[in-house]
Design goal:
alpha/beta; Trp Operon Repressor, Chain A; 2 domains; 5-stranded parallel sheet; binds adenine; 16% strand; 225 residues; Alpha/beta knot
C-alpha cells in the first residue's frame, strides 16, 4: 500500500512512521508512506499557504491554490483509491473503516491546519472525510498518524500473528477482555483460575463473557449497533 500525506508539518509525522510495527511494515515493503510538504507549493516569495477567511472570523484558512497544485501533481502520477481529508467535522473513524482502507492500494491523505482548508478543495477532490474523535487537534497530522497506524497494522502479513488483529477490541463490536501474564500472583492479586486451567473452550467462554461485561459497562452504545 502506498500512502501520500499532504502536510504543512512533515516533521510531526516522521517519528510515528519510524517505529515499531509501522516501520517493520515499511521495511518489509508492505507499506510506503510519502510526506508531501505543502509549503513547497506555497505562493510567492514567502510560499504563502494560508489566508484570512471570507466573511471575517478568527483563524486562518489553508488556501486553495497550493493544495490544488499539490493534489493535481499527485493525481497525474497515479490513481488514488481514496483522497481523505482529516478533519474534526466528519464522521468518526471506526474499525470497519480501517478494515476497508487496509485493502486499498493507494491512498492520499490531506491534513488541515488552523481553521481548515478552503471548502472548494473538499468539494472537488475529497472522496472521504475522517475525524478521529470529538475533540480538536492543532492539525490533522497526528490524526493522519492514528489513521495510518490503524490501517497499516491490518495489511495482511504486517502483524506476525494474523489472529491478533482479528481479536482486537471492536473487531466484533466488543471491547477486549482482560489479559494477564506472569507472575500468577502479584502482591496478593491472583490471575483468574480459569486462565490457568488449560481448559481452552472454557477460557474462550470466559473471555466472551468478560468482553460482553466490559462493553455493557463502558460502551453500551456498541451493543446497539
Ligand atoms: N484535525 C483536527 N482535529 C482533528 C480530529 N479530531 N480528527 C481529524 N482531524 C483533525
Amino acid at each position: 500500500m502506498r500512502i501520500d500525506i499532504i502536510t504543512v508539518a512533515p516533521e510531526l509525522l516522521e517519528s510515528p512512521f519510524n517505529h515499531s510495527m509501522i516501520k517493520r511494515a515499511i521495511d518489509k515493503g508492505l507499506a510506503e508512506v510519502h510526506l508531501q510538504d505543502l509549503r513547497n507549493y506555497g505562493l510567492g516569495n514567502y510560499r504563502q499557504i494560508d489566508d484570512y477567511q471570507y466573511g471575517g472570523g478568527a483563524g486562518m484558512v489553508l488556501m486553495i491554490e497550493p493544495i490544488a497544485t499539490c493534489i493535481e501533481k499527485l493525481l497525474a502520477e497515479r490513481e488514488y483509491d481514496e483522497v481523505i481529508y482529516m478533519t474534526p467535522d466528519a464522521k468518526t473513524l471506526t474499525q470497519p473503516v480501517s478494515n476497508a482502507l487496509s485493502l486499498k492500494k493507494q491512498i492520499l491523505i490531506l491534513t488541515g491546519h488552523y481553521k481548515g482548508v478552503d471548502q472548494r478543495i473538499r468539494d472537488k477532490y475529497i472522496t472521504m472525510e475522517i475525524s478521529i474523535g470529538d475533540y480538536v487537534l492543532t492539525g490533522g497530522e497526528l490524526a493522519a498518524a492514528v489513521l495510518c497506524d490503524s490501517v497499516i497494522r491490518l495489511i495482511p502479513e504486517v502483524l506476525g500473528d494474523e489472529t491478533s488483529a482479528l481479536t482486537d477490541s471492536f473487531q466484533d463490536n466488543l471491547l477486549s477482555p482482560p489479559v494477564y501474564t506472569r507472575p500468577a500472583i502479584f502482591q496478593g492479586m491472583k490471575v483468574p483460575d480459569i486462565l490457568l486451567s488449560g481448559n481452552f473452550p472454557k477460557i474462550e467462554t470466559w473471555r466472551s463473557e468478560k468482553a460482553l461485561e466490559r462493553t455493557q459497562q463502558l460502551r453500551p452504545d456498541l451493543l446497539d449497533e
